[in-house]
Amino acid sequence: MASKQASISVGPSTPIPATPKPKPYPFWLGGVAASIAASITHPLDLTKVRLQASGDKGMIQSLRKTVRTAGVRGLFDGISGTLMRQMSYSLCRFWAYDESKKLLGAGKNAPAYKLAVAGSMAGGIAGVVGNPAEIIMVRMQGDFAKAPEKRLNYKNCFDGLFRMVREEGVSSLARGMSPNVLRSILMNASQLASYDYFKSELLRHDIFGDNIYCHFSASFAAGTVATTVCSPADVLKSRIMNASGPGSTSTLQVIKKSFANEGAMFMFKGWVPAWSRLQPTTILIFLTYEQLKRGVDVARSKGLGL
Prior knowledge:
Elements: H1 29-53, H2 59-70, H3 79-104, H4 112-129, H5 131-142, H6 157-168, H7 177-204, H8 212-242, H9 251-262, H10 271-301
Helix pairs in contact: 1-2, 1-3, 1-10, 3-4, 3-5, 4-7, 7-8, 8-10
C-alpha cells in the first residue's frame, strides 16, 4: 500500500520580539545608599580613625574620651566630610564596578576571580577620585583628638577643601594617595566582589530567595572578609594622612617607624572597631542599595523616569 504523505501548510512565521535589555539603575544609587549607612555608623567610624591615629588603647576608651572632651555631639564630628566622601568615592566605586563587570563579561553567577578583578578596577578609579574627600574626612574626624593648638578647625568639608588647597597647595589633594588607592582596591575586590559572590551562591543553592535574608547573610560575610583584607592599608592611610613635618608623607618611613615601635601587629590595630564599624556599614549599604533598586523598579513600573 502506497503511503500518502500529508502536506502541511505552514503560514508566514511571526517574528518573536526580542526581550528588551534591562535599563541600568541610576549611577548615583550606590552613593546614596552609602551615605545613609555612613550617617548611621559615623560614631564608630570616628572612633576607628582616632584609635588608629592616636595613642588610645581601646574603642571604649576612645569613645569616652570623645564624649568627655566634645560631648555627645562630638561623636558626629566631621559628618560633612563623611558625606562628601560617600558621594564621591562610593558613588564612583558602585558605578565603576557595574561598568567593569560589563567590560569583563561578568554576568550572573560569574566566577569569583572576575568579580575580584572588576572590584579592583573600580577601587583603583574610586580611590583616585575620592582621595581629596578622604583626606578631609580623616582630618575632620581626628581633629578633636589633637591638642587645641594643633587642631585644624575646619568649619565643614568645603571649608577644609578650600583651606587645604590655599594653605598646602593643589598637590596636597594627592596626599597619601598610594595607600588610599591600595586600600580602595582591596576594599572593592573584597567587599563588592564577595557580596556578589556570596549572594550568587546563596541563590544558586536555593538557601534563600532574593530577599532581605539573602542580602543580610551575603553582606555579613562580605564585611568580615573586607575588614581583614583592608586593615593594613587602612592603618597606614590614617597615619600618613594625619602625619605632619618633613618626610611624613613617605609610606616607607611610616611603616618603618610603626614597625619599630609597635611590631608587625600594628597593621591590625583597630581591627575590632574597624569590624564593628564596617560590618554594620556593609550590611546597611547593601540592604539599602537593594531596597533602593526595588524602589526604582516600582517607580519605573508606574511610569516614572528613573
